[in-house]
From TrEMBL, chains A, B:
This is Ribonuclease Z. It catalyses: Endonucleolytic cleavage of RNA, removing extra 3' nucleotides from tRNA precursor, generating 3' termini of tRNAs. A 3'-hydroxy group is left at the tRNA terminus and a 5'-phosphoryl group is left at the trailer molecule. It comes from the Bacteria. Belongs to the RNase Z family. Its EC number is 3.1.26.11. One of its GO terms (molecular function) is 3'-tRNA processing endoribonuclease activity. Zn(2+) 1 binds at residues 62, 64, 142, 212. It is an enzyme of class 3 (hydrolase). Binds 2 Zn(2+) ions. PANTHER family: ZINC PHOSPHODIESTERASE ELAC PROTEIN 1. It comes from Acidiluteibacter ferrifornacis. Keywords: Endonuclease, Hydrolase, Metal-binding, Nuclease, tRNA processing, Zinc. The keyword Nuclease applies.
Length: 310, 310
């Protein structure tokens, strides 16, 4: 029922012994999606006991190594473990060339499964959708082309009210129609409104991942009102000029975007290695947006699990 | 004075939480050389406190991911840390294409230092040499082109005998000549033989790295009599047919090569993930070649530090 995000890496640029490079696992009821894949992501997936052969869709934000150098290793291990299911990779269109050449000289029949590349553009229509979720991409503001991704749960089915369904003797075969909103007509010809027989669906949640980006109000329409927002906060506010120069964001900028977008909950990450202790990073962001948490490796965030009112 | 090898990874194919993929650091008195670079090698270098900006030469055996997927991450971090010194990379000539494309889309002026690629061939002359060491390559027997590397220390300078040098009043400027074997003529015209003034040099050691290989007596001339040999032992002897099929070696095969080559000490590695406990792997190799040790992450082996007689 939940839309959740497991943090696999929080480090900007180089990995350290305590912080991995960017990668996140988005989980819905039926599926797992990987966003970005820094070096060592496959070990992070093992560490957190993710059954990574069940990941069929990987979203890469941009072609800086700290966001994709772990991809070929993961794909390679999937092959070694005998994967047959195709995998879909979404990202800047040049990613295809970059990945394929890594497997060009491995010899033999190549990988045991197909990789299907989807070049992402800055567009409003879905780049992926299934019965649970719709994923859209949006361009952020970085040194090179870089995409954010939004995961929006579809409207969920209405929930059957067991007692009333029993009372009105609704047959089992009709239950899926009830979930879709149909009224029920009894054998006597009486029409029972769907609202009598069902309760409102569980809420549909949304998660937006803003990748590496400078302060960019241009993306506000894309992330407006999401339940859970990941925004990078590479630097403290005192490094604002450095953030601008490197097309990254400060704590205050991340908080401001969250506040202006009216999101429910903010996760900050992509921390510069200059900050051993992240308390000041968190504290500074909270001065602008209170419901903020740190993207720490191994931590899971639930969209909708917000202390602020919905 | 020593030629040593630090093991950074021992795992065949996929990395695990306890075993990294192949990488080794060869250290001489003045230099550090990296052999192979599986995913996560940069973190292994950090873990074992190697000052990796001092590595100027990297040797890659072949283009299977478990031997080079960590290379671009390491090169990238060297860049992020402001490296200026060029780095030399030796390996199959296709490695240049595979590495360069990873940095093709990073934007800006590119890396802060030059990468100089050296396409390795199966040849007898040195691919690298300096005042301490000569590195040669040799082809091993794998599914794709794969090279082993031999590190041979040059003959070391003779060691000055302090007491006698003082007795014969050899001036300081002449000491380097003594180390090179020159005789000394006193002010009175007496010729003092170099052998009187100096002692024999320390022994010169050698290390051979056999990469991934099937049983291959063809390389015996290249590794004959080395002080320290690394030979893969992916499988126990009971998996001999699997070893043959995948162009890997068994314990007994590794031991047999060591024994036939008359090496002083054998390190085995590249262990299949099917073996949690490596005792049986070690034990089985020792039935053929007694002076064998396991390539465990973090372990350092000294060439010449052999229990067998020299």
């Amino acid at each position: 029922m939940a839309l959740s995000v497991l943090i696999l890496g929080s480090s900007a640029a180089a990995p350290t012994l305590s912080r991995n490079q960017t990668a996140q696992l988005v989980t819905t009821e039926r599926s797992q999606f990987l966003i970005d894949c820094g070096e060592g992501t496959q070990l992070q997936l093992r560490k957190y006991k993710v059954r990574f052969q069940q990941i069929d869709h990987i979203f890469i934000s941009h072609l800086h190594g700290d966001h994709f150098f772990g991809l070929v290793g993961l794909l390679s291990t999937m092959h070694l473990l005998g994967r047959k299911t195709p995998i879909h990779i979404y990202g800047p269109k040049e990613l295809k060339e970059v990945v394929e050449v890594q497997f060009k000289y491995i010899g033999g029949p190549g990988l045991s499964y197909k990789i299907i590349f989807h070049g992402v553009e800055n567009r409003k229509d879905a780049i992926y959708e299934d019965q649970e979720i719709v994923v859209t991409s949006f361009e952020v503001k970085h040194r090179i082309k870089c995409f954010g991704y939004k995961f929006q749960e579809r409207v969920k089915p209405r929930r059957i009210n067991g007692k009333r369904v029993e009372f009105y003797k609704v047959p089992n075969y009709f239950r899926s129609k009830l979930k879709d909103g149909a009224d029920f007509t009894t054998e006597e010809g009486e029409v029972i409104s769907n609202e009598v027989l069902t309760d409102s669906p569980y809420p549909s949640y949304s998660y937006a991942y803003c990748a590496d980006t400078a302060y960019n109000e241009g993306m506000l329409p894309e992330i407006k009102g999401v339940d859970l927002l990941y925004h990078e906060a590479t630097f403290l506010e005192q490094e604002k000029s450095r953030a601008k120069k490197t097309f990254h964001s400060t704590t205050v900028q991340a908080g401001t975007i969250a506040q202006k977008a009216g999101v429910k909950q903010l996760i900050i990450g992509h921390f510069s290695n200059r900050y051993n202790d992240l308390n000041s990073v968190l504290k500074e962001t909270k001065t602008v947006f209170k419901n903020t948490q740190l993207a720490i490796e191994g931590k899971t965030f639930l969209a909708g699990d917000s202390k602020s009112k919905k």
